[in-house]
Specification:
Elements lengths: L1 H7 L1 E6 L7 E6 H7 L1 H8 L4 E3 L2 E6 L4 H11 L11 H13 L3 H14 L1 H6 L1 H8 L6 H12 L4 H4 L9 H8 L8 H15 L10 H9 L13 H8 L8 H13 L25 H11 L11 E8 H4 L3 H8 L5 E7 L5 E6 L20 E5 L9 E4 L18 E2 L5 E3 L7 E4 L13 E15 L3
Parallel strand pairs: 1-4
Antiparallel strand pairs: 1-2, 3-4, 5-13, 6-7, 6-13, 7-8, 8-9, 10-11, 11-12, 12-13
Length: 459
């Protein structure tokens, strides 16, 4: 009897579907049941087969190499993902999700985000198709959408694999308000996706226009047609007017004469204006809001009238006064962006002076009414953004020369960043500006900071 019980605690698992890949693994059922809710359920139901007092289980939709990696994870204290290529890690992610190895699922997502950024960008279509339908992969999904697609939607929409995007994935993306791409480019690529995918509709008695309308019917309500110029509408949208409603066409005709968006179409928020910014600290949506602040406004407009040109990054250009001043003196208007250590907080300031950050003690050239400082409590949204403008009659202290050098706003200093590589510190003391950009006056450590030249667009 004891031998029978011992035998039933051992299971032979057959993995692989292709004959060449089929392989048998003999494992302890109790170990798998303890680590995986999937196997706990599988071994307690009728999914196993008992033959000659031995237990057998088939798992054809997982390869031998992936299952071997799972067993290695279960039987070792240190599991090194770097020995696997990123594609194998993605296969391991799928298996971990299906078989509910929660710890491994989190480990693989973290590894890909921290060590395979370039691969994720290159394979963004394939990755999104896999992770979007899997709720447990939210960490990797959020990274791919927030840090790759929203930063540069061209990686997605201009990919030769764009037409391979699954419908549910594309719906999620087209509904995103923060796609950094023109609305007309979304439309053109959506038409391309639709035309390439109408072959999936089996009824060939329907004409192509009707097929296209059926394919895109879920997407059309998500397109911000009123962010498309009349010229672009006539050139790229009008040829497909048969797939659009008569009501939309009529309302757009009214819009092009009045400039007023019909009330029925205001329920869809305009997307953020397209903007490129080569930053590791902020995203285009932050830059769009900063542009509005520069123009004295509090909300993002339909277009961004500035180009953000990065001229300095501490981590790559050198943390020294020499490096900073060589690149930033006489640069004209600039913004400073600082990533605070140990948190997601971003601090920054706008310097509107023509002489940039050239030092000049007590110089009248440092006086301005238009400087401001700001903060974002995290890099994901704008709802917690703070802006603090120079106090009335304090323009002589808007920008000051800090005794230790480095960009400095206000006499507090209201915001100062050290350029000493051995002391990656900064300071915030509310004094010259209207309010503090931190909850209290404090020294802080920073991970990195950047300077961008603000160039007024000519058109």
């Amino acid at each position: 009897m004891k031998n029978i019980i011992d035998n039933l605690n051992i299971v032979t698992i057959q993995v692989g579907d292709d004959y060449a890949d089929i392989q048998m693994f003999v494992v302890n059922k109790l170990v798998l049941q303890e680590k995986s809710a999937y196997f706990a359920a599988a071994f307690s139901n009728k999914w196993t087969t008992i033959k000659d007092d031995k237990c057998y289980f088939r798992k054809p939709n997982i390869s031998a190499s992936v299952f071997e990696a799972l067993l290695r994870y279960l039987n070792t204290d240190v599991f090194d993902l770097s020995v696997y290529d990123p594609s194998a890690c993605l296969d391991l992610l799928i298996a971990s999700d299906e078989m509910i190895f929660d710890d491994l699922l989190e480990k693989v997502q973290t590894y890909l985000i921290e060590h395979e950024k370039l691969w994720l960008e290159t394979m963004i279509i394939d990755v999104l198709n896999i992770i979007v339908p899997r709720p447990a992969c939210f960490q990797l999904r959020n990274y791919c959408i927030n840090e790759i697609v929203e930063r540069d939607a061209r990686l997605l929409f201009e990919s030769p694999k764009f037409s391979l995007l699954e419908e549910n994935v594309l719906l999620l993306l087209v509904g995103n308000d923060e796609l950094n791409i023109k609305e007309i480019d979304i439309w053109k690529n959506l038409i391309r996706w639709g035309l390439d995918n109408i072959n999936n509709i089996s009824d060939r008695n329907i004409d192509e226009c009707k097929l296209l309308q059926q394919t895109l019917c879920k997407f059309l309500p998500l397109i911000r047609f009123f962010q498309i110029s009349p010229n672009e509408f006539d050139r790229y949208v009008r040829p497909y007017e048969k797939i659009l409603s008569e009501k939309l066409l009529e309302e757009y005709s009214q819009f092009r004469f009045t400039g007023i968006i019909p009330i029925t179409n205001r329920i869809i928020e305009p997307r953020l204006p397209p903007l490129r910014i080569e930053s590791k600290i902020i995203k285009p949506k932050h830059a769009a809001l900063i542009s509005s602040w520069i123009n004295g406004k509090s909300e993002i407009g339909q277009s961004v009238p500035y180009t953000f040109k990065r001229i300095y990054r501490a981590s790559t250009d050198g943390i020294s006064g020499k490096a900073f001043h060589e690149k930033c003196d006489r640069a004209g208007p600039t913004i400073i962006l600082v990533k605070s250590s140990g948190s997601e907080q971003i601090l920054g300031g706008y310097n509107p002076l023509k002489n940039g950050w050239k030092r000049g003690w007590f110089s009248s050239n440092h006086q301005t009414d238009f400087a401001f400082i700001f903060s974002f409590d995290n890099g994901r949204n704008l709802s917690n953004a703070k802006i603090s403008r120079i106090k009335e009659n304090a323009k002589h202290c808007a920008l000051v020369d800090h005794p230790w050098d480095g960009p400095c706003f206000g006499a507090g200093p209201d915001l100062w960043v050290s350029i000493n590589c051995s002391k990656k510190i900064g300071q915030v003391v509310n004094d010259t500006y209207e309010m503090g950009i931190k909850d209290h006056d404090v020294f802080f450590y920073w991970d990195d900071w950047e300077v961008f030249q603000i160039i007024k667009n000519k058109y």
